[in-house]
Amino acid sequence: MSDNKVLKKWFEISEDELCARMLKQTQEHDAPVQKAVAILEAAIDSVLKKLGVDVTRDDVPAQMDALGIIMTEETREEMAGLQGFFIFVTGKKELIPHAWIGSAHLTSEGKCRCEIHLFQEEKMDEIIGPKIVH
After folding, report:
1. How far apart are CA 44 and CA 102, in angstroms?
2. Model's pTM, two decimal places?
3. Which among 19, 81, 84, 99 counts the fewest CB atoms within 10 Å?
4. Quick check: 126 and 112 in contact, CB under 8 A?
């Protein structure tokens, strides 16, 4: 038997095996990631609603421009390098920090959570979703 046939057989999988692998990828990776993104979007939406943005409409970026709201993706060094989003409101000559929304993290119970720091209200809030990892 030649080396080509041995290598070719090593890379071949059946259609059933491919379907099983794709299903496992969806269940163990894609679905939890999509749920975590939904939690992060809910956190962003909650802050934008407080600033007067109607998040149910398709023109959210245009509304943010009209209201002088700027959202940037940043890393906060004072929070051990956590990733997140800053939301600023434009003042007369400066940007006023309004909120910081942390990236989605898993709790020890397998639930997804996002921290929200509201600077003007001097409070911290969080959104905790359902259990996404079993």
Report:
1. 10
2. 0.74
3. 81
4. no
